Amino acid sequence: MKPWIELGTAHIPNDGGILTLRQRDQEFSISLSGPRGELMNSRRFNSEQQLSVLGCAHLKNHEKARVVVGGMGMGYTLAAALDAVPSSAEVIVADLIPEVVEWNRGPLGACAGRPLDDSRVVVHIGDVGELLVNRDGSYDAVLLDVDNGPEGLTHSDNNWLYSVEGTSSIYKSLTPGGVLAVWSASPDTTYANRLKKIGFQVEVKTVRERPGKGARHAIFLAKKTVGRRINKT
Ligand SMILES: C[S@@+](CC[C@H](N)C(=O)[O-])C[C@H]1O[C@@H](n2cnc3c(N)ncnc32)[C@H](O)[C@@H]1O
Fold this sequence. Notes:
By secondary structure, this protein is α/β, with parallel strands linked by helices. It has helices at about 45-55, 75-85, 100-105, 160, 165-175, 190-200, and strands at about 5-10, 15-25, 25-30, 35-40, 65-70, 90-95, 120-125, 140-145, 175-185, 200-210, 215-225. Strands 7-6-5-8-9-11-10 form a 7-stranded mixed β-sheet.
């Protein structure tokens, strides 16, 4: 078997560690320094795609749909979101780490079919949270895959995204009928209950890392139903 070749490294802000991109034949891997190890591998992306398939299922015929994808990773969630929405849509992809976006413009782009070349994509380099504050009624779907689940594992500042404050802000940023979809390595009852208390209608779907096989991951599907109120208690 051929050896892994290192293609690049990137520092995660606030001493979050170092990301390394490696390639072996057609396989790509992104790993985090320290015990966490591999974060993404181009051989396993079904659950990343399902995040968009499930989170954008209501947008097939929704003209000018606006979708936020956080983060970019290997581009599978972004590419599946583009497949799920009409040609008039806008899909804003956020990633904290500029190098991750550069890698997707370079060698990594082929994995998901070069989604950054799609004219419907707007890139935000920075925290996805910046797109979700004071944006009332702006988005038809918000798709989050920035951590291992509803805890800021790779970046402690991400805890805000899953907090009562962050979840309320995301709720407000959605249009009526809009959907927040969150990827997680495992179910989390506390987070599901928090989503419900904020006013979302919640389903937790189990998805496999490869079609029909491999590890089971969870996707929280939280719908902003019309006429419900935010309850912060
Ligand atoms: C697990 S990967 C996403 C994988 C992606 N769903 C795919 O299809 O390949 C997580 C990504 O989120 C980015 N990230 C982490 N925290 C973020 C934040 N607060 N805002 C934006 N991007 C973030 C990381 O740099 C990384 O690229």
